[in-house]
Amino acid sequence: MTSSASFNRRDFLAAGTAAGCGLTLANAAIGADMLTKGKSEHVISIWLGGGMGQIDTFDPKRKGDPKKKLAGSYYDSIETAVPGVRVCEHLPQLAPLMDRVTAVRSVHHEVIDEHAAATNRMHTGRPVSGTIAYPSLGSIIAHERGAAGDGVPPYVLIGYPNVTRGPGFLGTRDSYLYLTDTSQGPAGLARPDGITPNRQSRREDFLSVLKRNADPTTDQRLLDYDAAIEQSLKLSGPEFMQVFDLDREPADLRNRYGGEFGQRCLLSRRLIERGVRFIEVSHNLNFLNGIGWDVHNEGILNQHKLIQELDTAVATLITDLKAKRMLDKTLIVITTEFGRPPEFDSGGGRGHQGTAFSCVLAGGGLSHCGAWGETDDVAKKIVSSPVSVPDFFATICAAVGIDYHKNLYAGDRPVPITDMGQPIAELFA
């Protein structure tokens, strides 16, 4: 069956596949109308490559001591706007905003040692498969919701292209536009030197002639490729490209966002204003501290610089969106491969931990509570409200009004959209 045929079948079966999409019998009896649904329109997903340590950021515990091999937090903790919820001392700007934030402290998966496999898990919600290429969360949301405005892509990646961020079996229509430097914008959309508007127009006229004289095709891959070319031509125009001109923003606001990572967060706000649905922003893109968040051994010595940079940019993003009355319709998500154990390694740093770690949600019209889920006294084991990766994905999908129980189709093969995840219902109260 072609992708087009699968699309029609999907529409035909949409009302009749609830039980097969992972609903419990009780939920199936209630019906699809009882699905948890939020009112958010956009997602800004911040990716912390390397593995952010929950015990040193959003799930602080007793103070440890690497020299004495005493397990615990590397830093002191501070109070927040939510009574009983504390965060690392290097998050002072986010602390008073935690009533608009939920640190989900009980996320878990079984991947420990492989960064690539864990990165794939946290982007697709599933283990790596040898038989099927699963779509990323960004592509799923692009597929289900499309762009929120005309003349813009639904999905933008501010980071390096990677298969884990891609559309998988959904195809190129649901892929991303990417850039790595906010001062230049998407390189693929900038005309090379010497290509004048007249020359570009002649090229487009020639392309139109070739398309008119080509044999008709029903191959969905070719149709998707043609659609991608058409979209690229539209996006290369000045109307969309001006969104990347950050000099249009007040200088004091740009300064509050901070360095290059902060400028990516500012750009993400401009992109959602223009109508982009999903944006992934990579933090510390080129591992400016040498290792990113993968703080083995002496790598932990400069971890506070990463935390401070994150604090500055995300706190400014929240307040900026709030000032523009966009926070309730924009879900901010912070994810990472896995967490870090409370014990210190031989060099004073930390290893990897997938059994309990933190991911963060902010804005998006959710009923935030500062923190959700609970770990033990050293953030090593979950003691209440575990949240699987599919559950976390379902929460995001529900927040943007996507049916997290439906099937997508890889040819004839039904694929549950979130691997049967259930959203954190309390966040939608």
Walk me through the structure.
The chain is of the alpha/beta class and 429 residues long. The protein has eleven helices and 15 strands. The chain has helices spanning 3-13, 25-30, 115-124, 137-145, 197-213, 220-235, 238-241, 251-257, 260-274, 303-323, 389-399, and strands at residues 42-48, 77-79, 86-88, 101-108, 155-158, 177-179, 278-282, 330-336, 357-363, 370-372, 374-375, 382-384, 387-388, 407-410, 413-416. A hairpin with a 6-residue loop joins strand 2 and strand 3 (86-88). The longest helix has 21 residues, at 303-323. It starts with a helix and ends in a 13-residue tail after the last strand. Residues 1-32 have low confidence and may be disordered.
Features:
429 residues, single chain, disordered N terminus, two-stranded antiparallel sheet, 15% strand, alpha/beta, Alkaline Phosphatase, subunit A
Outline:
This protein has helices at 3-13, 25-30, 115-124, 137-145, 197-213, 220-235, 238-241, 251-257, 260-274, 303-323, 389-399, and strands spanning 42-48, 77-79, 86-88, 101-108, 155-158, 177-179, 278-282, 330-336, 357-363, 370-372, 374-375, 382-384, 387-388, 407-410, 413-416. It is an alpha/beta fold. Strands 1, 4, 5, 6, 7, 8, 9, 10 and 13 form a nine-stranded mixed sheet that branches. Strands 2-3 form a two-stranded antiparallel sheet. The protein has a two-stranded antiparallel sheet with strand order 11-12.
